[in-house]
Design goal:
Radius of gyration: 18 Å
Distance between the termini: 46 Å
Structural class: alpha+beta
Largest sheet: 4 strands, antiparallel
Number of strands: 10
Number of domains: 1
């Protein structure tokens, strides 16, 4: 019999830095069509995990390190999710991976969405809480964490959800160069069009803005004492 502890041991062995489990009752407010059951009708548990993102990429003068790390860590998370699902089948447990960075258009809300929201799965699984900047904040790594998840047919003991970490200091709202955070719901398309795209001079696709992540007092996490000592 495999339990929640074993689930985490496997994911950590595959390269995850964080891992948590959510029960389905934590998804009652999910937009129509994007509930875990809309993807896997037999789903009984959601397993969310994360990998830390190098904080040095925030202070580079070049956009390239941040962009390339983001692309690489996306592939890493997708590989972990796939390997985990394959491993679970050895225990006769069916799981499916949720893509880390793949969106589809939702006509009901006029927004791009993952088939199940990675950051909401992570929040439901107790990894952290979503801040004013719409990013997940974790105690260990702040917002410097990227997320993956799998849906499982077996029920596992869920982790306790965390209390809100963001205190709505509004630093991210003030730092946004296009005012995408003025309202509680981020202006998603405006943010994406400004931050992501081709550099006309260098002829390379890059992520040109992460100011909301830079300015966040929690961008290194409240428990990351070594990094705080070096700042």
């Amino acid at each position: 019999m495999i339990d929640s502890r074993k689930i985490k041991e496997i994911l950590f062995s595959l390269g995850a830095d964080l891992c948590g489990i959510a029960s389905l009752d934590r998804f009652d407010d999910t937009p129509r069509g994007y509930h875990p059951l809309d993807v896997l009708p037999t789903c009984k548990s959601v397993v969310s995990f994360g990998c830390r993102f190098p904080v040095g990429t925030l202070i580079c003068k070049s956009d390239i390190p941040y962009t390339r790390v983001r692309n690489s860590i996306t592939s890493k998370l997708d590989a972990i999710a796939l390997d985990f699902c394959i491993e679970m089948e050895k225990y006769q447990i069916v799981c499916i991976p949720i893509p880390t960075n793949e969106s589809q258009w939702d006509n009901n809300t006029d927004r791009w969405r993952s088939i199940v929201s990675q950051k909401h799965m992570a929040q439901a699984a107790g990894l952290g809480t979503i801040g004013r900047h719409s990013l997940l904040i974790t105690p260990e790594f702040g917002s410097m964490v990227w997320l993956g998840a799998v849906l499982c047919e077996q029920e596992f003991e869920p982790d306790k959800m965390k209390e809100p970490l963001c205190n709505n200091c509004n630093l991210c709202v003030e730092a946004c160069p296009i005012n995408a955070l003025e309202n509680p719901k981020i202006k998603q398309q405006a943010c994406w069009e400004f931050a992501f795209g081709d550099d006309g001079e260098e002829k390379v696709w890059r992520i040109a803005c992460h100011k909301c992540r830079d300015i966040c007092p929690h961008n290194l996490g409240s428990e990351n004492s070594i990094l705080h000592q070096n700042r």
